[in-house]
Write a structure and sequence with these properties.
The chain is α+β, with helices and mostly antiparallel strands and about 400 residues long. It folds into two domains: about 290 residues, Zn peptidases (Aminopeptidase); about 110 residues, 2-Layer Sandwich (Alpha-Beta Plaits). The chain is about 30% helix and about 20% strand. Strands 1-2-8-3-9-16-10-15 form an eight-stranded mixed sheet, covered by helices on one side. Strands 12-13-11-14 form a four-stranded antiparallel sheet. A three-stranded antiparallel sheet has the order 4-7-17. Helix 1 packs across helix 3 and helix 3 packs across helix 10. The radius of gyration is 23 Å and the shape is globular. It starts with a helix and ends in a 6-residue tail after the last helix.
């Protein structure tokens, strides 16, 4: 054990209690002013620990440097995590709970809600460990405050142990990753790393260098509202049109029916009434050509419905969000192997799995900063049943020390 578990828990709890929910309806960056609260907290903490070049940009990015420790020939390595949490569950007033020595039974979060291995069987992998949860009324925020905790804790450890030699390490903590805008104003040249790792993954041992290709979709259905008592041959019900659209999507190609490399259509939200309905969707696929086919399907469906209901009754806008980082990482695959070796050095079995989502690393890799993704140990992200085994958080800190150590056993 290199970093005390109570210190890790204390640091993570401090981050989790700062609300940082991003806002996908906002046009600013960061999308929510509360994200600045954690950014300022981190700036103060990093300065107090003794890191250099600590700054917060006007867009809410926090940058810092852990200077090289007697080794100037090593490449500059970046470590990245995001500060915001998902807007799919509340991140306000998070109450962190520690359930010590988990015994395999349901965990009581509050009077009504339990975290049960019957619903979440992965829990049984952590019998005997200490499980961190919220009180079940909010998400926990391990996505990605566990990543921030691990990175900051490793920097503190390396500063206290100068006998461990390492090259220059650059840190970046980003806003708005959860809404796909975490790299819009990323200061790439100022960051100055040859390659980086996002610490933003899931279960113990996960290592990712493949992500979805992603497209965001907004569909508008324009109806005509007429009093239902006199609406024959006059009303055009936008709710009916939206329902027809949803039923026209391939039934088996939705998130709840797919896994692995299988892509999907996913309707996130629907709002409106007879006169107008708006739908937000996402399209995902690891294969770029298959994603293009999904986009073409929606455009064809739009044309079909406009032919049925009238010109411009349905509008469909498509916006590519991020790409599969695999094509950018394969030419420098040794950085994935470096992570595998670091995991093996501390007794963690690497589990290479494709991300059924994206990370800041997806876009950063396309921008010229190859950026595989490392586990944090968390489960059930974006919801009230999120949990984080404390021992997994401890292990990622050990992995990061080995990742930057010189010489790394290769």
């Amino acid at each position: 054990m290199m970093i005390a578990q109570d210190k890790l828990l204390q640091r993570f709890t401090a981050y989790a209690q700062i609300e940082t929910t991003s806002d996908d309806k906002s046009t600013t960056q960061p999308s929510a002013l509360c994200e600045f609260d954690l950014a300022r907290y981190l700036v103060d903490e990093l300065l107090e620990l003794g890191l250099t070049e600590v700054e917060m940009t006007e867009y809410g990015y926090v940058l810092a440097t852990l200077p090289a420790n007697g080794v100037d020939s090593e490449p500059v390595i970046g470590l990245i995590a995001h500060m915001d949490t998902s807007c799919e569950a509340s991140g306000r007033n998070v109450q962190v709970q520690l359930h010590k020595n988990y015994d395999g039974t349901p965990i009581q979060l509050n009077a009504q809600d339990v975290l049960s291995p019957q619903e979440f069987p992965e829990l049984l992998n952590y019998i005997g460990q200490d499980i961190i949860t919220s009180d079940g009324t909010t998400l926990l925020g391990a996505d990605d405050k566990a990543g921030i905790c691990a990175i900051v804790s490793v920097c503190e450890y390396l500063l206290a142990h100068p006998e461990i030699k390492h090259g220059k390490i650059r840190l970046a903590f980003t806003p708005d990753e959860e809404i796909g805008r975490g790299t819009e104003h990323f200061p790439l040249e100022r960051f100055g790393a040859q390659f980086a790792y996002t610490v933003d993954g899931g279960a113990l041992g996960e290592l990712n260098y493949e992500t979805f290709n992603a497209c965001n979709v907004h569909v508008t259905f324009k109806g005509i509202s007429v009093h239902p008592g006199s609406s024959k041959h006059k009303m055009r019900n936008a709710v009916t049109m939206a329902a027809e659209w949803q039923l026209a999507l391939p039934a088996g190609e939705r998130p709840e029916y797919t896994e692995g490399y299988e892509g999907f259509y996913h309707t996130l939200r629907i709002a409106g009434g007879t006169d107008k309905v708006e739908i937000d969707m996402i399209l995902r696929d690891h294969d770029k050509q298959l994603l293009e086919q999904r986009k073409e399907y929606l455009l064809a469906l739009t044309a079909l419905m406009n032919k049925k209901y009238g010109t411009d009754c349905v509008e469909c806008s498509l916006h590519d969000s991020y790409c599969n980082m695999k094509e950018y990482i394969m030419p420098v695959y040794e950085i994935v192997e470096r992570a595998e070796q670091a995991m093996c050095a501390v007794g963690v079995e690497p589990v290479l799995v494709p991300v059924r989502g994206g990370t800041d690393g997806s876009t950063l890799s396309a921008m010229g900063l190859p950026c595989p993704n490392l586990f944090t140990g968390g489960h059930n992200f974006h919801g009230r049943f999120e949990y984080l085994p404390l021992q997994s958080l401890e292990k990622i800190t050990e992995v990061l020390v080995e990742l930057v150590r010189v010489p790394l056993c290769r």
